[in-house]
Amino acid sequence: MTRNSRWWKRWLTAPLILIASLVIWIEETLWDNLKWITAKIALLKWVQWIESLIRQLPPYATIVVFLLPLTILLPFKLLAVYWMTQGHWLASLAVIISAKILGTAIEARMFVICKPQLMSIAWFRRLHDWLMQITDRIHVALHALPLYQLIRSKLITIKAVCGQYLNRIKQTLRMIRLWYRRNKAP
User: What separation in angstroms does the CA of 152 have from each of 18, 28, 36, 104?
Assistant: First the structure.
């Protein structure tokens, strides 16, 4: 390894670990919360009807349905990039974040629904297994790094504190609602 490449590695490793830590933490947090939200939405009768239709599709038609949410959200992401070039940073950031959250929620639910049909396609199953192996290796390598462990512990603390504040807000809102119901004029 040359002296110049060691310099790059030394200066880029910590920021890349920080970014990877944040991305993994955000995705895990989103995944857990979005699974709960999409499970609640899936209780709606019309959603159950659509899901039953999707489950009846043949495997290759399921691929199209599985990729459909990504293609539907693409124009919004392109709009966000356009707004970014026009200097509308907050609007573009809001659209990108919303599209990411909505896309992750829909894709997570779609994968749950479509997984049996998708896994019946040999090349898709091999691709899925290969991607899972790579993801697992990356996670193992990251989890072994002391910097990652430090960042992760700080993020977990932040998440716990935010959760406490959210619980306080929920309790306050419940108390306000109860007070309003009791003191509402007949």
Answer: 9, 12, 23, 22
